[in-house]
Amino acid sequence: xxxxxxxxxxxxxxxxxxxxxxxxxxxxxxxxxxxxxxxxxxxxxxxxxxxxxxxxxxxxxxxxxxxxxxxxxxxxxxxxxxxxxxxxxxxxxxxxxxxxxxxxxxxxxxxxxxxxxxxxxxxxxxxxxxxxxxxxxxxxxxxxxxxxxxxxxxxxxxxxxxxxxxxxxxxxxxxxxxxxxxxxxxxxxxxxxxxxxxxxxxxxxxxxxxxxxxxxxxxxxxxxxxxxxxxxxxxxxxxxxxxxxxxxxxxxxxxxxxxxxxxxxxxxxxxxxxxxxxxxxxxxxxxxxxxxxxxxxxxxxxxxxxxxxxxxxxxxxxxxxxxxxxxxxxxxxxxxxxxxxxxxxxxxxxxxxxxxxxxxxxxxxxxxxxxxxxxxxxxxxxxxxxxxxxxxxxxxxxxxxxxxxxxxxxxxxxxxxxxxxxxxxxxxxxxxxxxxxxxxxxxxxxxxxxxxxxxxxxxxxxxxxxxxxxxxxxxxxxxxxxxxxxxxxxxxxxxxxxxxxxxx
Length: 504
Hints:
19 strands; 33% helix; 6-stranded mixed beta sheet; alpha/beta; 17 helices; globular; 21% strand; single chain
């Protein structure tokens, strides 16, 4: 029996939008493990959304676990399907609902009306499967992006679904976590679960029984030999010669304000008479997230105490250097960079940007004029109705004339390989995850910050987009742009970083 069957399925997100799927036909049998690969914007996430009835085909027939998606749309039968399908979104924050991990993983089983002891057993089983048993009493909002992604997977597993759909589940997880999660997926498949894994990683796709590729809204089958060859070739950026091109002026870093001292080397000289002043300085910085105030489901003994996200951090970042911030999920990487422009205030210690303490409102505002951050999840920073307005927002707030704003928008889109004619008038929320990430980066580049901070910038990107972005960062590095990059990818660290600051 087919768990999923698409017959001549087409889908568009609006009457004027280009087709996301065009006459797609494929099937997945019950008990199969199938990987779905393809470039950003090729239609992978759209297939996944149709499989869980988040949308219905524009034309054609999509049938999942015996349910015709078009006929159950807007009916209670949708919930009957979703009790059988576990869906893990590309961004876990799209599906997490509770304050505490225990309540989050309990949410689905509770809605099935299961007795308390069965719910507890499912929580233990699901958290153990994703390596998060020790997080049962923690505040969901205090977890790292990778940890929240694991909790989202635990949510799905706690429902014991017949079909598990995972949309880029490893994109925010460190290397050890990726290996562990792929082992979990294989164990679930060995136990008879049907699995659809959406991934950009050829080595992950090669572990599936079958591999399907999306391209221009259509689907085709890929051999394991072809996928293994792509896995061997998936590190081209590491072997490319250093980029020599200089980025256009509109994305070069802004010159330092007149009062600032002359640029300094990326690392202090061996025996300076006067050490250069760091552009960003952490002095004995600690930070602890507030614990959850309430528990909505009394399943457990008193809540585990909050643990510090940062403890006594000393760090100096110098103008013109590229610093990589590394460490396992939950080690405090995102927390660290959110102190760099005053988004977070230290629980203890102080942070200085351009010699200004960021603890005050004025200091934080001053830091934000120096430091531009692209977030781990681009959806958090996107808000405009069109890509053009999204990227134009910052330059307009700088008081630039509209022709200068348009020039910056065009140059930033070009830098991220997003053609202006194809993307300028599109809604950012209708883009793929990888495309949204590019738009978020373009919006920061258009501001010309002195310090460019990127939190997992390549997550969710296909291999060509990943290599293009790394090449762009190398070009910016050649102009002495100060860059801070948070990444789990050692190859990107090897290519870009002058120094590495490891947490954990």
